[in-house]
Amino acid sequence: MLEEFGISRDGNSHDPGSDTKARDAYYDAIFKNVYERASKDKSSLAGVNFWAWAGEGRPRRPEGLWKLNDDFIGDPPHEPQGWYSVHDRD
Fold first, then answer.
1. Alpha-carbon span 41 to 84, nearest angstrom
2. pTM (two decimals)
3. pLDDT in tens, 69-90
4. Exposed / middle / buried, residue 11 (Cβ in 10 Å: 0-12, 13-18, 19+)
5. Could you list the residue ranges forming a coiled coil in this record (predicted)?
6. Beta bridge partners of 2
7. 48, 35 Cβ separation under 8 angstroms
8. In whole angstroms, what separates CA 17 from the centre of its chain?
């Protein structure tokens, strides 16, 4: 299992509306590599889990820390919210 890999949004932005071109290319390369390896040797790799799925959640404010009643978006509460988040519209 390849897990907890990720990369920030373009320009290290925490804004959910910022570009993700570099991250998209990074994930594309990883997913293709994992798929190729898994296709060749079914026992060597079981899956992937990137960091971190935010879904419909959004940070209260870019670079803010999590506070009670904020959305859960994958980042630990003591870290800036939204930096590595993959949102439903990315």
1. 30
2. 0.83
3. 999 998 889 999 988 899 999 9
4. exposed
5. none
6. 48
7. no
8. 14
